[in-house]
Design brief:
Layout (H helix, E strand, L loop, with lengths): L10 E4 L7 E8 L2 E6 L4 E6 L5 E3 L7 E3 L5 E10 L2 E8 L4 E5 L12 H6 L6 H19 L14 H11 L5 E4 L7 H14 L6 E5 L4 H12 L4 E2 L2 H9 L11 E5 H4 L3 H8 L5 E4 L14 H10 L4 E5 L7 H12 L7 H22 L3 H7 L1 H11 L1 H12 L3 H16 L5 E2 L12 E8 L3 H4 L7 H5 L2 H4 L3 H4 L1 H12 L5 E5 L2 H13 L5 E4 L5 H12 L7 E5 L13 E4 L6 H9 L10 E8 L3 H12 L10 H18 L3 H24 L1 H9 L2 H15 L1 H15 L2 E4 L4 E5 L17 E4 L2 H6 L4 E2 L5 H11 L6 E7 L8 E10 L17 E6 L11 H7 L1 E2 L2 H58 L5 H19 L2 E13 L1
Parallel strand pairs: 10-15, 10-16, 11-13, 11-14, 12-13, 14-15, 17-22, 18-20, 18-21, 19-20, 21-22, 25-26, 27-31
Antiparallel strand pairs: 1-2, 1-5, 2-3, 3-4, 6-7, 7-8, 8-9, 23-24, 24-25, 27-30, 28-29, 28-31
The protein binds adenosine-5'-triphosphate (ATP).
Adenosine-5'-triphosphate (ATP) binds next to α4.
């Protein structure tokens, strides 16, 4: 660039820092030019021969503003001493004379045409990246897997089915009740992630038992890239002392323990003062409720639940505290629907009838029954109404039996199942779990216990260390047995659970200090940090504790599936607690059979309980969904046997009747609610289709290609690390100071889900990772790559012809949560005209230009644009007109798709509401309101020019 071109008073704009606004040349001395940017109050000095700036000259007809904010349209321009004087008229028709020095400095050149004429021309590679970004963005938003594929998790059908079912609702309120260890935390994470990504939720509160707070923190971060802030009394007080009014306002995602908020009026008030979108409560079986008494924790959660739109309750053992508490948790989800306990009890009995019908349809001759069996058809009428069932029967009769059958079952499950509020997958339905093997070790009872235990309490007989007295560690044969067992299994990680924290503490101290065992302890009386330290020591792969001694409640919900041995130092009376214990090891990720070891005294209460749990109700080797019901039924007989000693005949009778009752209840559950529940918790065909959509959505090779270009353009250094992984490092050449999701130290990242599952030290790069979505947002939300100039050799065209390619997007200022893109038929509208006004859109494609287009140096491009400005402007006008002609068709197509989909959803919900009381009225009104809002916004969409590429035909 010639030195003389910079003249003080001229207006220029920075090519690399457009956000500085319009600059003024203040000096041009010694081959250095200084530019003041008044809007940003910044000054820059550049070498005159390579200053990254462009001259700004407005053409006649353009509307601009003076520094005082007066808008005027330019009618004439005059150049004087290298600077321009603009003449124009303001809105009132007053004439103005404005030297360019007095123009508004805050202008931003974001529109592609403005940038183009301001000489801000991007590289061709950036232009192409912008267009690809728009396409990817649109494809992702339209996919049914949108929001669900970002987690570092295995693609398990039962989890994705639930997540998809729930995440697509507005303000979902559900109870996630999969059996222990099937991944409720992951399901909640998937739902949460989807709601956050789609903009349906922004502020989330998770509350969990003390022992799980860090586990949740880590799971959310490493699996879903969600960074929660832990809030506790100390942190709140510290924040308040440093001037924060309400500590809960300080973050969007907050995690706290249930003990912290329990009955804590002041903190609850602060929580309620914030606007939350979602509340997640883990181990929700702690929320105790009966018709006569409500626990403080229940009341606390009830207060929050009635103020927060979306609610996820998680428990593996929903009926652990009885049907009342189960009912009460459902009541938290929907107080209107669950208002009467007796009615609820009654309803439970009807599930069997629906299930019988479903089972008939599932049977081999289901299609023929549907088509021909008058009795079944009459029954169907009763459940689905005349219209629906007639249509189904007719399609079954006209050869579309399989489709009709599937639809019929779906309708029945939808309308008469429990699936709307309650999801429960069982191990029987989810494959791939290892076996459970029980080892029992009869021991001789210590002398004290052989004599007088008549006055003993139930707790004492079940935890006999309380009977033995202070020196139990020396006297208790279970301790000696443990010592020997650990010696024989030195290399095996073992989890030991006993009921009480005190016993756990004493036992661990004893085996560590007296017996030299590498051990750690974990119970509710420890600080959270120490608990997590102990768990980490146990989990360590090299320097690990051989045994982790846990109390009952302390270990609830924890992940210890890397261990294979579980010692039950005592046994809980409640089979659900037994299941919780086994569930620490028997969880997703367990690679071996689970070995359960139970040392017990012969002829003691423990021996009785062991046999009842094993022989009577088969609770060790298999999950026992009937556990609570069986305990209710037999608790009196069982406890009197435990306290008074075994009368063999009575005991045998107990075992036999328990077996029979267990079988009966299981059969009943299979016939009724549980079978329906299981079917509506995961419909395999839909789950499979969803996982296919997730795999399709992932398109790993496209992502690799896309991100390589992104990193390259943004100046992030990438080195190949492995077959699917890269090392990413920020550099001094980055075009912005920071790259989203990339820390100053850089990171290693893999594109492979399989590798990411095994290598937690690596980031899992997928379309929803913050680095990828952040980069996409940076590109589409800014002017990045929205102008380009190239030359092309296209022999039939006259050399010198200008080709103007314009890209439009259908734009609408709507809340993100409405996700309007999914209804739009295409990502962009492309129009291409030559300078003679010929529409060549169909003849010269983007691919042609991408392939044949050759780079033009910046200075030459700027000159070209300056000289061709008039021609280009008139072509751009034509392009806008041509695009506008498509606008109505596009909007109509979007409206059509949205109406079709939303009407279907509304109809489904309306039909459901008539027969299934689990649908909340507000769900329907919310859906209707959203439908309205989506359609209204779509109607106001406008095509907006997003990018321009000028190609000059060369010879
Ligand atoms: N899809 C998945 N991919 C990888 N790991 C998973 C997946 N689902 C679950 N896991 C792992 O399996 C274990 C059990 O999952 P999770 O803690 O979510 O189960 P849960 O049902 O909440 O258990 P609990 O009933 O004990 O509370 C965890 O270690 C979790 O990380």
């Amino acid at each position: 660039m010639a030195v003389t071109e910079f003249i003080p008073g001229q207006r220029w704009i920075s090519n690399t820092e457009a956000e500085l606004g319009l600059g003024i040349i203040t000096s041009n001395l010694d081959r250095r030019v200084t530019i003041l940017f008044p809007a940003a109050e910044e000054e820059r000095t550049y070498a005159t021969d390579n200053a990254p700036v462009s001259r700004v000259e407005y053409p006649v007809g353009e509307s601009v503003q003076t520094a005082e904010g007066v808008e005027f349209e330019i009618t004439e321009r005059l150049e004087k001493n290298g600077c321009i004087i603009y003449f124009g008229k303001d809105k009132e028709g007053n004439e103005l004379i404005v030297p360019e020095l007095e123009l508004d400095s805050t202008v931003q050149f974001n529109r592609p045409q403005d940038r183009l004429f301001a000489g801000q021309i991007d590289k061709l590679s950036r232009y192409r990246l912008r267009l690809d970004t728009l396409e990817h963005h649109h494809r992702l938003q339209k996919s049914p897997a949108y929001g669900l594929s970002g987690g570092r998790v295995q693609l398990l059908p039962h989890q994705f089915y639930i997540a998809h079912e729930v995440a697509n609702r507005f303000a979902p309120r559900v109870l996630l009740a999969d059996e222990v260890g099937l991944g409720k935390t992951i399901e909640a994470g998937l739902i949460l992630h989807q709601q956050l990504i789609s903009g349906r939720a922004q502020r989330v509160l998770i509350t969990v038992p003390d022992s799980l707070v860090y586990q949740w923190l880590i799971e959310m971060l490493r699996r879903f890239n969600l960074r929660f802030s832990i809030m506790d009394e100390l942190r709140c007080t510290a924040m308040e002392m440093s001037g924060t009014d309400n500590p809960f306002e300080s973050a969007q995602l907050i995690l706290c323990t249930q003990s912290f908020i329990n009955d804590n009026a002041e903190r609850i008030e602060q929580i309620l003062a914030c606007q939350w979108d979602m509340l997640i409560v883990d181990e929700a079986h702690h929320l105790v409720w009966s018709e006569t008494e409500t626990s403080p924790l229940y009341r606390t959660i009830e207060t929050l639940a009635s103020n927060i739109p979306s609610l996820l309750l998680l428990t593996a053992t929903p009926e652990q505290l009885g049907i009342e508490s189960h009912f009460a948790r459902l009541r938290l989800l929907d107080p209107d629907r669950y208002s009467d306990l007796d009615q609820f009890r009654e309803e439970q009995t009807h599930y069997a009838e629906v299930n019988t019908l479903v089972q008939k349809l599932i049977a081999e001759n289901g299609v023929s029954l549907l088509a021909n069996d008058a009795a079944l058809q009459a029954e169907l009428n009763g459940y689905l109404g005349e219209e629906t069932s007639a249509a189904l029967i007719e399609s079954a009769q006209s050869g579309e039996g399989d489709i009709a059958l599937e639809e019929c079952i779906n309708h029945l499950l939808d309308r008469h199942g429990t699936g709307r509020v309650l999801f429960r997958n069982t191990r029987d339905a989810v494959e791939g779990f290892p076996k459970r093997v029980l080892h029992t070790y009869p021991l001789e009872a210590p002398l004290q216990l052989m004599t007088d235990t008549a006055e003993a309490t139930l707790q004492q007989v079940l935890q006999p260390e309380y009977l033995i007295g202070e020196d139990w560690l020396e006297q208790d044969p279970r301790v000696a047995w443990l010592d020997n067992w650990l010696k024989d299994h030195r290399l095996e990680k073992t989890l030991l659970i006993c009921a009480s924290a005190d016993s756990a503490q004493a036992l661990e101290e004893y085996i560590r200090l007296r017996k030299g065992v590498r051990s750690a302890v974990f119970h509710e009386k420890m600080t959270l940090i120490n608990r997590d330290r102990a768990a980490a020591y146990f989990a360590d792969e090299e320097e690990y504790a051989q045994v982790l001694v846990c109390s009952e409640i302390g270990s609830e919900g924890r992940n210890f599936q890397f261990a294979q041995h579980l010692i039950m130092f005592d046994l809980p009376l409640n089979p659900d607690l037994l299941e919780q214990r086994i569930g620490r090891l028997d969880r997703i990720g367990q690679k071996h059979d689970v070995q359960i070891h139970v040392p017990y005294y012969e002829n003691s209460a423990q021996a009785i309980l062991l046999r009842w749990l094993d022989e009577g109700i088969n609770a060790f080797r298999h999950t026992c969904p009937a556990g609570q019901l069986l305990l209710n039924q037999f608790e009196d007989t069982l406890t009197s046997l435990l306290l008074d000693g075994a009368d063999e005949a009575v005991f045998q009778e107990l075992i036999t009747t328990s077996q029979a009752a267990s079988k009966e209840i299981l059969d009943e559950l299979k016939k009724g609610r549980d079978r329906l529940l299981e079917m509506s918790s995961c419909r395999p065909a839909q789950a499979e289709a969803l996982l296919e959509a997730v795999t399709e959505y992932e398109q790993r090779s496209q992502l690799v290609d896309y991100m390589e270009r992104v990193f390259d353009q943004f100046g992030v250094d990438q080195q190949t690390h492995g077959l699917h992984s890269v090392i990413l490092q920020p550099t001094d050449q980055m075009i912005y100071h920071r790259f989203p999701g990339l820390s100053d130290d850089g990171c290693t990242a893999t594109y492979s889900r399989e590798e990411a599952l095994g290598r937690e030290d690596m980031q899992f790069l997928n379309w929803e990772h913050p680095m990828v979505s952040g980069a996409m947002e940076m590109i589409t939300g800014s002017e990045f790559g929205n102008t380009a100039v190239c030359t092309v050799k296209l022999p039939p065209l006259q050399p010198g012809t200008l080709l103007v390619e314009t890209i439009f997007v259908l734009y609408c200022a709507a809340p993100r949560a409405l996700n309007l893109q999914r209804y739009q038929p295409q990502a962009t509208v492309r129009v291409l005209f030559d300078s003679n006004g010929n529409n060549l859109t169909q003849i010269i494609t983007s691919e042609h230009l991408n392939k044949l287009g050759e780079r033009v140096k910046r200075h030459a491009s700027q000159n070209l644009i300056r000289h061709g400005r008039e021609q280009i402007s008139s072509v751009l006008e034509k392009a806008e007109t041509a695009a506008e002609q498509q606008q109505d068709t596009l909007i109509a197509a979007a409206l059509d798709k949205a109406t079709h989909q939303l009407d279907e959803e509304v109809e489904r919900l309306q039909a459901l509401i008539k027969v299934n009381p689990s649908i909340r009225e507000d769900e329907l009104s919310q859906l209707l309101a959203n439908r309205e809002s989506i359609l209204n916004h779509l109607r106001t969409s406008k095509l907006k020019m997003d990018a321009v590429r000028i190609a000059v035909v060369s010879n």
